[in-house]
Amino acid sequence: MKRFMSRLGFYLLVAAIMLYTVFPFYYAIVTSFKTGPELFSADYFPLRWNWDNYISVFREQSFAHTIFNSVQVSFAVVAVSLFLGVTAAFALGRVQFRGRGLLLLTVLGVSMFPQVAVLSGMFELIRCLGLYNHLPGLVISYLIFTLPFTVWVLTTFMRDLPKELEEAAIMDGATPWDIIIKVFLPLMWPALVTTGLLAFIAAWNEFLFALTFTLSNTQRTVPVAIALISGASQHELPWGNIMAASVTVTLPVAGLVLIFQRRIVSGLTAGAVKG
C-alpha cells in the first residue's frame, strides 16, 4: 500500500508539472482560433476552427519572410557554433597546455553575463563592422550565449573519449583534423545533436539583440515581429493574430525536441563511450 501511494503521488506530481507547463501553450492554440468577442470567453476547447488569424498573420504581417530570416540566422548560428565548438573542444579536451583549465573557466564565465551587460559594447562592434540591420550581425551577436555552452559540453564529452582511438589514428599517420572528422565526430553525435538543438532554440527565441540590431521589417526575426504586431488603433492588440503567430513559431521547435529527445538526454548524460 505504501508503495502504491508513493507511486500515485509521483504520477500526480508529474501530471501537475505537465499541466503547469503545457496548459499555457494549449490555451494559446485555443485562442488562436478565436476572433472578435470570442477572444474574451473562457473556452478550453475551440467551439469552431476559424483559421482567419493564421491567414491574417501571413497575409498582412509578411510573417513568412520573418520566419525565413529566423531560419537563416538559427541555422547559421548552429553551424558556426558547432564548428568552433568542436575545434575548441579538441584543443581544450585533448591537447595539454598551460592555462587550459583557466581558459575553460573563462569560457564558462562569459555565459554568466546577462545580455544587457554586453548590449552597448556589442552594438558598437556590430556598427563598426557595418552589420547593423543585417542578419550576419545577429549571427555574430548570438554566438556570445551559444558558443560558451557548446564549447563546455563538447569539451566534457571529448575529454572522456578513449585515448587509444587517438593514438591508433596518429600511428596511422592521421592529422589532427583527420582525427576530429573521422574518429571523434562519429562518436559525438549525441552531444552534437544536443548542443546544436539548444543553440537553435536559443537563436530562434532571442529577442533583445534582434530588437536592438535590426531596424527594418525585412531584417527582423520572429520574436520581434510578434512583439510588434499591432491592431487598428494604438490601444488595440489583435490577440488572435499574436497567438496564431506564437503557435506557428513554437510548433517546429516543439517538434524538433520531440524527435530528438532521446539524443538530447543521452548527450547531456553520457560522459564516456560505453562498450
Quick tags:
globular, 72% helix, disordered C terminus, 275 residues, MetI-like fold, single chain, mainly alpha
Layout of strands and helices, then pairs:
Blueprint: H1 2-32, H2 52-60, H3 63-94, H4 100-110, H5 115-128, H6 135-159, H7 163-171, H8 176-184, H9 189-205, H10 208-213, H11 222-227, H12 239-259, H13 261-269
Helix pairs in contact: 1-12, 2-12, 3-6, 3-9, 4-6, 6-9, 7-8, 9-13
What is this structure, in a nutshell?
By secondary structure, this protein is mainly α. Helices cover 72% and strands 0% of the residues.
Over the alpha carbons, how many angstroms does the gyration radius reach?
23 Å
Percent strand equals under 5%
* Spans of at least 5 consecutive residues with low confidence: 271-275
CATH topology type of the largest domain = MetI-like fold
Structural class: mainly alpha
Proportion in helices:
over 70%
Can you say what the CATH homologous superfamily of the largest domain is?
Answer: MetI-like
The end-to-end span amounts to 40 Å
What does this structure look like?
Helix 1 crosses helix 12 and helix 7 packs across helix 8. The model is unreliable at 271-275 (pLDDT under 50). This protein has helices spanning 2-32, 52-60, 63-94, 100-110, 115-128, 135-159, 163-171, 176-184, 189-205, 208-213, 222-227, 239-259, 261-269. It has 13 helices and no strands. The protein is 72% helix and 0% strand. The chain folds into 2 domains: 1-50, no CATH class; 64-269, MetI-like (MetI-like fold, Orthogonal Bundle). With 275 residues, it is an all-alpha fold.
